[in-house]
Amino acid sequence: MKITDQNNNNSVSTQFGAGQRINKHGRPKGSPNVRTIVQNFANKQHVMAVNGERRQISTVLALLHIIQKHALNGSVKHAEFLDKIQSQYSPEQVGEDGTKVLVVCETMPMEIWQILADKLNEHRHEPPKLTNKEWLEANLLKS
Questions:
Q1: Which residues contact 4 (CB under 8 A, 6 or more apart)?
Q2: Which of 32, 79, 84, 85 is a Cys-bridge partner for 36, taking CB atoms 3.0 to 4.6 Å apart?
Q3: pLDDT band (50, 70, 90) for residue 77
Q4: Do 17 and 25 contact (CB within 8 A), yes or no?
Q5: Alpha helix (H) ranges present in 4-107?
Q6: How does DSSP classify residue 126?
Q7: What distance in Å separates the CA atoms of residue 134 and residue 101, rounded to the nearest whole number?
Q8: Which helix (H) or strand (E) holds 26?
Q9: In the chain, where are the structural domains located?
Q10: Pairing outcome for strands 45-50 and 2-4
Q11: Most distant pair of Cα atoms in the chain: their distance
Q12: CA 6 to CA 142: how far, in whole Å?
């Protein structure tokens, strides 16, 4: 089928004709949509050892525990992901003086975040103070 552009009379080929339905039957009634499927997956319960005791937790919480474990073992990628999640989803409260106060979830207490930050920063140190000549000698003029 060809459609003619009214402005410059160029013909454009299309796969479907005018008024032709692409998906005639659509999603069957009663079948779950993508949102429902994802919610069911996220809420599915699993048995997992948490702090030495077996608990039944959701898929999302199980994944967060696994990501937290990797982050505490030094994975910067996992730590950055947890930091993003915490900043995006942590609730805020307003103090008596009107300032916002961040409420830290029980699953990741502030002490753990501090340990994680210290672990991630332990390899960092102040670079030595070099003059331009010393830097050139150390980096560019090596024989």
A1: 10, 11, 12
A2: 32
A3: very high
A4: no
A5: 34-43, 59-72, 76-89
A6: P
A7: 47
A8: none
A9: 46-91+109-119
A10: unpaired
A11: 75
A12: 69
